[in-house]
Amino acid sequence: MEAQLVEAEKLASSGRVVASVAHEINNPLEGITNYLQLLLENMSEDDEKRKYAELVMEGIYRIAGIVRRLLEANLNIMEEKGDHDINHHIQNVVSLLQGKLAQNNITVNQFLDNNLPQIRCHPNQLEQVFTNLILNSIDAMPYGGIINIVTQMENEHLLISFTDNGYGIPDQDLPKIFEPFFSTKKGTGSGLGLWICYNIITEHAGRIDVKSKRNAGTTIQITLPL
Ligand SMILES: Nc1ncnc2c1ncn2[C@@H]1O[C@H](COP(=O)(O)OP(=O)(O)OP(=O)(O)O)[C@@H](O)[C@H]1O
Ligand SMILES: [Mg+2]
């Protein structure tokens, strides 16, 4: 128990360091972006220096994306744990993402066990996990599809699974998907989404597993202790 507490404290303090570094990077980054934007606006379309400025801008957008992710990941680190209804937080996330889901022709089916006990957790952090998983499923189904979300109890544990029928994950990528910065979405993904999920779930003494079949779909299953 004591060791666990020390671990949690260490995590919280390293989270604070990451959050403050990310915050400090963010301020000058905004200035750089604005000035670069001004430079670009004042360059003629055929100025040959323009492509260098655009490449710099692309790099800055990439840095800004990573910084934003790190800030988001650590935003809720100080939140107190409490007893919460997980189904309610899944429903919250699905309704927040409803517009994006509809735009992408994706149907979400929620098979939520109505008799779940409350779980001791950081609800905002778990909402962040659910959001990341749904966003990954959306990316994996560019022509639309289905996401099934299931909650159930099994042997004093809560199981939460997200299954999509998207393009799946190649076997050779499976061991890497929870690593920071692993992404197959060239230029658009920071590769931090699942790493953040892994950290949040581990911090809840839970586990997160993946099963996937190429061109058939992916299931991410979270197991949380009561
Ligand atoms: N549901 C899924 N279907 C197919 N591939 C997936 C799925 N979820 C994750 N992946 C693969 O795992 C990789 C890592 O996912 P992760 O969420 O960490 O990063 P990302 O989505 O690429 O970028 P970010 O979430 O930081 O914007 C993805 O690039 C993708 O290749
Ligand atoms: Mg992602």
- The strand line-up of the biggest sheet is 2-4-5-7-6
Named CATH topology of the largest domain:
Heat Shock Protein 90
Which architecture of the largest domain would the CATH scheme give at its second level?
A: 2-Layer Sandwich
The global form is: globular
- What do the pLDDT scores average to? 88
Element-by-element helix/strand order: HHEHHEEHEEHEE
Straight-line N-to-C gap: 16 Å
Question: Which regions contain 5 or more consecutive residues with pLDDT less than 50?
Answer: none
Number of strands: 7
Radius of gyration: 20 Å
Structural account:
The chain is of the alpha+beta class and 226 residues long. The two termini are 16 Å apart. The longest helix has 40 residues, at 2-41. Helices cover 50% and strands 21% of the residues. It folds into two domains: 2-75, Helix Hairpins; 82-225, 2-Layer Sandwich (Heat Shock Protein 90).
Summarize the structure.
The protein has 226 residues and is an alpha+beta fold. It has helices spanning 2-41, 50-75, 86-96, 98-103, 123-140, 193-203; strands spanning 82-84, 106-112, 119-121, 145-154, 157-164, 207-213, 217-225. The protein has six helices and seven strands, in the order ααβααββαββαββ.
SSE inventory with pairings:
Elements: H1 2-41, H2 50-75, E1 82-84, H3 86-96, H4 98-103, E2 106-112, E3 119-121, H5 123-140, E4 145-154, E5 157-164, H6 193-203, E6 207-213, E7 217-225
Parallel strand pairs: 2-4
Antiparallel strand pairs: 1-3, 4-5, 5-7, 6-7
Helix pairs in contact: 1-2, 3-5, 5-6
The structure holds adenosine-5'-triphosphate and magnesium ion.
